[in-house]
Structure formats: C-alpha cells, structure tokens
Design brief:
three-stranded mixed beta sheet, alpha/beta, 2 domains, Ubiquitin-like (UB roll), nine-stranded mixed beta sheet, Rossmann fold
C-alpha cells in the first residue's frame, strides 16, 4: 500500500471493513465422534449404577429403621399404657374423663398424640382446661380443671327447669352452662337464676347475655353479705333487660338495676342495717330509684325518729 508522502495533505487510506457474511469461521468445541459417544455412554451407565446403589442402600436403612422402631418401641410393653391418674374436682368422675379420651391398654405412649387427647377432654362441657403428662413407664396423668357451678339457671324456653325436675342445669362464675348428672346437697343449696329470655343455652359456652353476668356479680356480692349474718339469697329473677330482682329467705324482694351495682349495694346495706335494728319485715325494696327509694313491709314498720316531723319535734342534743 503506498504511503503518503511527507508533507502531503492527503492522509493514508484506511483498510476497508469486511462485509458481513464474508469468510466467517465457526469452531465446534464439542465435536462428536464414535469414541466420544462411547465415553459418554459409559459415564451415563456409571452414574445410573451409583444412583441405583444409593437408592437400594436408602431403602435398606429405612426398612431396618422401621423394623427397629416397630419391634423395639411400638411393641415394647414398657411404653404401653398401664395407669391413668386423674386429678380433678367437680361433677365429672374419673371414669367419665378416661372414657372421653378413648384410650385403651394397648395405647403406646410414644405414638400417642397428646394434643388430640386434650382436645377430646376439653370438648366435655364440664371441663374448662386440661393438661396431660406422660412418663414413658406406662403412666398417664390428666390434670383436669372442671367448671365449678355456683348457681342453677332456669329458662322454660330452653327446657332448663328446676333442680328436682330432672332437667336442671348449673352455671359457673363465667356464665357457662354446666350439665348436672348427679344432684348433691351442696348443689341443692345453691341459688337459682331465672331468665325466661335467655338467648342461647349451649353447654360449656359462656352466655352472651349481659344480664346473666350482672346477676352472677350481684349474687356473689349478696352471698358474701349472707355469710356475715344477713338473710340468705334464694333466687335472682331477670324480668327485663334493665333490672334484677333478688328473692331472699323471708319473702323479701329487692330490685337492683343491672348497672352501677356498688352504689345500690351501699344503699342496700344502710337500709338492711336499719331493718335489723328496728326489726322490720321487709317485703319489697326498689334500689333503681336513687331518690325516695320505695319500700314496702309485711307489717307496719317502726319509723320513730325517721320522719321529718319527729326530727323537728325531737329535743336538741346536748
């Protein structure tokens, strides 16, 4: 190629670019030949053989493990259920709780699902919670907390009748219905809650009615006063959504509102203190009225010193 002369204004010609598609060479880095294909076939056979051997070895290990587990653990009499200890207090007996679990003497404690057994026990409406322990020596311990009843609940609409009718139902402090299979003297001594408009009666489920919970709170507070010498509570009637009527031994009926029980109980305490001092035979008392609380009596009460005329005519204290 001629070069440009020195001092010439013309530059040297550049080499022309190659056009696409001219003299393109492709190198095959993986050429196939009979020898290479033979080597690849031999390598595939080796990999397949190794894979098959690993699968056979894994199946042997799994089989030996299953046989060992089945013979040494599942059939081992050391892990079979021999004794069930039930720690509980309430209406359910030990036999009823064990029967609800569905366990037999052939049950293996290793393979037993504790969560399922606990769920079966807690499905009983008398049970509040359950805890299960196993010691792998044939003993299973059931710690069952039963719902302790505090009163009877009566509702003809749901066929919940009196204690001695054979269709009575108890209720615990949380408002959950507790079926009664055996009636004891302690149960007969419990007060009754009469609620004709009870919304639902599902055993073991706390009631959604606010009046029921208000009646339980009132019952608890009145029973604590009965332990201090006041008259005993027999029935709490729920005649409507806003009032509770407490029936006491001695034909006294005290009406409370469902809200703000503490101020009403304070006025109740003052009134009953005066009634004991003056030996009143109270028939009714309505504490919903905050001013001029109405009261009736079985006999003419002694109100000396309580009327405004008596207070005005009494001599001044010295």
């Amino acid at each position: 190629m001629p070069t440009a002369k020195k001092g010439s204004s013309k530059s040297a010609k550049r080499p022309a670019r190659k056009r696409k598609g001219q003299d393109t060479h492709v190198i095959d880095y993986e050429p196939e030949s009979p020898v290479i294909r033979e080597h690849e076939a031999v390598e595939r056979r080796r990999r397949g053989f190794r894979t098959a051997m690993w699968l056979i070895a894994a199946m042997i290990v799994i089989g030996v493990g299953w046989v060992t587990w089945h013979e040494a653990l599942e059939k081992n009499s050391q892990f079979l259920l021999k004794t069930v200890v039930v720690n509980t207090e309430g209406t359910l007996t030990r036999q009823q709780i064990v029967s609800a679990t569905g366990l037999t003497e052939d049950t293996n404690l290793l393979t037993m699902n504790l969560r399922e057994v606990r769920a079966k026990i807690e499905r009983l409406p008398q049970v509040k919670s359950a805890v299960i322990h196993r010691d792998y020596h044939g003993m299973l311990t059931l710690d069952v907390v039963q719902r302790l009843p505090v009163a009877w609940i009566e509702c003809p609409k749901h066929k919940l009748l009196g204690p001695l009718t054979g269709k009575g139902c108890l209720i615990d402090a949380e408002g959950a219905l507790v079926p009664c299979d055996v009636i004891t003297k302690d149960y007969l001594a419990m007060p009754r809650i009469q609620f004709p408009e009870l919304s639902e009666a599902v055993p073991g489920r706390p009631s959604k009615d606010l009046q029921v919970h208000a009646a339980l709170r009132l019952m608890e507070k009145l029973q604590s006063r009965a332990a201090e010498g006041q008259v005993a509570l027999e029935v709490i009637e729920i005649p409507n959504p806003w009032s509770l009527v407490a029936h006491f031994n001695g034909d006294a009926k005290i009406t409370f509102g469902v809200d703000d029980l503490d101020p009403q109980l304070a006025r109740f305490d003052r009134f009953m203190h005066e009634a004991r001092e003056r030996k009143w035979r109270v028939a009714t008392l309505n504490l919903i009225s905050r001013i001029n609380t109405p009261a009736t009596f079985h006999e003419t009460p002694d109100v000396t010193g309580l009327t405004l005329a008596d207070v005005a005519s009494s001599p001044p204290a010295r």
